[in-house]
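To the team - 2-(butylsulfanyl)adenosine complex, inputs and output below.
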Amino acid sequence: MSNLYTQKMTRNRTTQLETPVESLAPFQAEAELAELAELLRWHDELYHGQDQPEISDAEYDALRNRNNAIEARFPELVRKDSPSRRVGAAPAAGFRKIRHSVAMLSLGNAFTRQDMRDFVESLRNFMRELSDPAIPIELVGEPKIDGLSLSIRYEQGRLVSAATRGNGSEGEDVTANVATIAEIPKTLAGRGWPETLEVRGEVYMSDEDFLSLNARQAEAHETLFANPRNAAAGSLRQLDAAITAQRPLRFFAYAWGEISEPLAETQWKARQRLQELGFRLNEPARLVKVAGEDFDTIFSLYDDIQTQRASLGFSIDGVVVKVNRLDWQARLGFVSRSPRWAIAWKFPPEQAQTSIKTISVQVGRTGKITPVANLSPVNVGGVLVSRASLHNQDEIQRKDIRAGDTVIIQRAGDVIPQVVSVVLDQRPPGTEPYRFPTTCPDCLEPLVRKPGEADTFCVNGLNCPAQAVERLIHFASRDAFDIEGLGVKNIESFYAKGLIRSPVDIFTLELRNGSPAAPGARAAEEATPPLREWEGWGEVSERKLYDAIQRVRTIPLDRFIYALGIPQVGQSTARLLARHYLQLGHWRECMEQAFDTETEAHAQLLAINGIGQNMAEDILNFFHEPRNLEILDQLTLPQNGLAPLLTIIDFAPPVAASPIAGKTVVFTGSLETLSRNEAKARAESLGANVAGSVSKKTDYVVVGADAGSKEKKARELGLTILNEKEWLAYISEKGM
Ligand code: IVH
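Output:
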């Protein structure tokens, strides 16, 4: 490396960073982009290639942001070797990660008019002053676009970064790609924009553009996209932004993330503000009022949008209904991963007719056997469908579904397509009723169906390769450990070669460097070669995988619990458990005790709101299985004098600084301004546990009118008793 080059690399660039991007002339921008490309390549090499970074992560990010900002302003100057495009610069599968400062969440679903009435009722239940149905509530209804969500960050009115939703907390850095989308302003229009503004919305492709893109793809003998959504996603997530630039992507803005000052007081006005700032809005949208039993306004908006669906020119899959007042949105807040103040009212599922070629069964992560119809591929509402779930044995029998049958199938959103019914008069001669297998197709052990239950299981657990592989796939998946490069294909091949047989093997992979995992799986002399020597692998991809694994060795407790793949324990249950038990060790101890149904630990588990008998059994069964405990030990405890493979971060109550964090509060009697739901949600958002009954462990008892026996008990126990006013003053005095 030449001296000049090294000098440049280590030079302090802070003086240059002071030139605002907007005052750069094109020739300056070009020169700086060239320099940044060189600099970043150098730092990437130090970091990834030699593990010897010269600058801090923050300094590195500043360089990249600077590069992104210049590229956003001068998309025509984006270099072929731009750091934002370079595969080598990205840690693993291609894109750098961006952590969302405000999580990107999803929406709850409504399917019927009744669901919509229930949604409004839930608003009334939550907000005391809306409890009288006569009081009107303003709602904004707008099309739910079927694209992919994007968060675009503007600082001082300039686009500085853009990220996909990813897992909701962390997305992919697609800044360079987004810089090529003409519809997305690189600098905000108008005046008075917030200094920091993350605009959120949907990247999509119009129907027309989608068809002509596919025509071009066909001409070039490239694969066709199944639908506009896939085309949009495939076009945005290109490592080479020059390809994105050739794709006709569009963008609708409908929400925001981090924002330094509010855009407006209402959703409706905020929409208008977004338009003034240079964004396109999804239409047709309407501001409506509902009151009493009169829901006609929102029903007719839904009907209107549905009628116009086919002629809008872009794909939508429903109507998003949002509470108009932003102060109400703030109070309503979120439950689990979706807002209480908005809902996605989906259109009915789309149907199509096709025939069943064969019926097969799949073994899931929990051993559940799911029969699947393999179909003659058919287009259902823009998506090519070739498989549909048949649910279980009874379902097949009830509908008498047979191989060879012509069937009606339907799909709704991301849900797995289903067989609705058989077209009996088209049944070919000679078909036979389906015979459900009695042994596991994978490990050949007999299948078990408990009396009174619909599902059939392979109970061979981790000894069944199909289950072991599914568990590993779940373990490494996006909402769990999120290990880039360890997807379905690699897990299957690593499993087959004995390289990874349990989660533990993932974290010893680099150490073993090619030796099979399971002791005795293969004789030492048969050790597989190091990964980099495998077909399709090289030093770079091997390094990337090891780095990706390295990066996830520290993981929050809730994600860890979810990753374990306990039957019925999804993300929200995992969060409930983490929230309740706070530490892995504590949780485990309690679960091991709780196996005795007489214990306090057992009662406590069942007392967690959201955990029922059935789910508790699954959780306890997990802890009763010695192999699971062994894996937990190997992952989280020191082994042979070496540090544990993983660090599990204790659950942190949402607001650590809150004085009521970790305290137990009981609300009793009828409160005046707060509904019980809102009181509970607010206390919980400040980190408190809300209990249903008073005990020695209660910290505060908040009493409303006609409190009765709980208040009496609280007095007897000498607990702190507050009325509603005092309570509100107490929590707001603490800056809340
Ligand atoms: S508002 C807190 N409005 O639907 C979430 N989302 O199922 C606020 N989407 O991830 C989202 N059209 O990607 C909103 N008009 C619209 C939308 C919309 C499509 C997507 C969005 C979100 C998903 C939720």
